[in-house]
Write a structure and sequence with these properties.
Distance between the termini: 74 Å
Strand content: 15-25%
Number of domains: 2
Low-confidence stretches: 1-19
Structural class: alpha/beta
Order of helices and strands: EEHEHEHEEHEEHEEEEHHH
């Protein structure tokens, strides 16, 4: 059974598999039409005492499958990435929360790290970050994040001290008043999407990213449009070792480079193109009738 965000919630944990010594931790998961992946995701965090699923309009069996595994399922119209996550966090019963995507899997090593954090003394002001790895056509890719971005990918934190930055429309970040500490183990981002879907996704994200750059006062140029994709490809393929992953690593690096090209090309378009359905006069000019 699911509920609107304003209604009381029904705890269906009695239908979930029994696990002893669950951690006093709430896992927050956003969903929309994730029936193929939600069970796998929830099973990877079955050691947590609460899973909160915030669904934004699924028309498949996502909500039913999540509830059957003991998750508390809420329906919430889409508020944007950061606001949607903060809404889920506000509904958790525990102050310590771990944020997860439906297409992610917590590896045993990462689970052990989370358990270590939760069973040892810790500062509520600190946040704990993860090493998130993508797959590409069934092959696990190396981490391509810079060290600063890796440390900044906070997923485990105390909600009384930290929250998602509402100014971030995409690639959202948790703002913590204390230290950010990288945990051992990897978070698997495993979806095995086809190239068509990947291109569609990066195109959608590139629009939002270009808007954010525009708001930050960044100016696009021919130099950026040319150099950013080249540098991105070299970073992924050479510096981060994707060349070791065969054709999958090559294609993965190219897709990452394309995303940089589209982002800065769209930014240039926003800043320089005035749309008109008619060609300019120096291209074609309609002659008035005599």
């Amino acid at each position: 059974m699911t509920h609107s965000i304003s209604q009381a919630n029904q705890n269906v944990e009695s239908s979930a598999p029994v696990h002893t010594e669950k951690l006093p931790l709430s896992v927050i998961i956003l969903t929309k039409n994730e029936e193929l992946l939600i069970e796998r995701c929830l099973q990877s965090v079955r050691w947590a005492s609460e899973c909160v699923v915030i669904d934004s309009g699924s028309v498949d069996r996502t909500k039913e499958l999540a509830a059957a595994l003991g998750a508390k399922v809420y329906e919430q119209e889409w508020l944007g990435w950061s606001a949607q996550r903060n809404k889920g966090i506000s509904l958790a019963k525990h102050d310590w929360v771990f944020v997860l995507e439906a297409d992610e899997i917590v590896s045993p090593e990462l689970a052990a790290s989370i358990k270590s954090v939760m069973t040892n003394p810790r500062d509520d002001r600190d946040g704990y970050s993860i090493d998130r790895r993508d797959d590409y056509h069934g092959v696990l890719m190396p981490s391509i994040r810079r060290r600063s971005n890796l440390i900044g990918c906070v997923r485990l934190f105390n909600r009384t001290q930290s929250s998602y930055d509402l100014t971030m429309k995409v690639h959202e970040k948790v703002r913590c008043p204390g230290k950010t500490i990288l945990m051992s183990g990897i978070l698997l981002h495993w979806r095995s999407t086809l190239l068509d879907e990947q291109i569609s996704c990066l195109n959608r994200y590139a629009t939002i990213e270009a808007e954010m750059l525009q708001e930050q006062g960044c100016q696009s140029s021919a130099l950026l449009i040319v150099t950013r994709p080249i540098l991105r490809f070299l970073w992924c393929y050479v510096a981060k070792g994707c060349f070791r992953k065969g054709i999958q690593g090559l294609n993965y690096s190219i897709v990452r480079a394309i995303s940089d090209y589209v982002r800065y090309a769209k930014l240039w378009e926003m800043q320089n193109v005035t749309y008109s359905i008619d060609p300019p006069a120096d291209v074609y000019q309609v002659k008035a009738e005599d």
